[in-house]
Amino acid sequence: MFADTITARQKPPGQVTKLIPSEVFAQVADGIEGLVHLRELAWTPVETPADAVQAGDEITVVVTETDRERRRLSLSRRQSSSAGV
């Protein structure tokens, strides 16, 4: 089943796979990708995902929501650290 081992509040490492205008796709497990919304990429506002990350970058994220029915993960890079980075 989709993301059986992934739950909210986990901090898996991720690899950025694709950038689109307001989101970033990150692979957090073999065959499992989630979305990081632009506002969740960095503590300071960024205009585009490329201002914070590039495809291939390794990042740490927090799983903020799992939607098993729709097979979607919501991720946050900003919440993965307690300090503003």
UniProtKB/TrEMBL annotation:
Residues 3-78 form the S1 motif domain. Keywords: Ribonucleoprotein, Ribosomal protein. This is S1 RNA-binding domain-containing protein. Pfam families: S1 (PF00575). Gene3D superfamilies: Nucleic acid-binding proteins (2.40.50.140). The keyword Cytoplasm does not apply. SMART domains: S1. InterPro entries: NA-bd_OB-fold (IPR012340), Ribos_protein_bS1-like (IPR050437), S1_domain (IPR003029). Belongs to the bacterial ribosomal protein bS1 family. The keyword Ligase does not apply. It comes from the Bacteria. It comes from Streptomyces flavalbus.
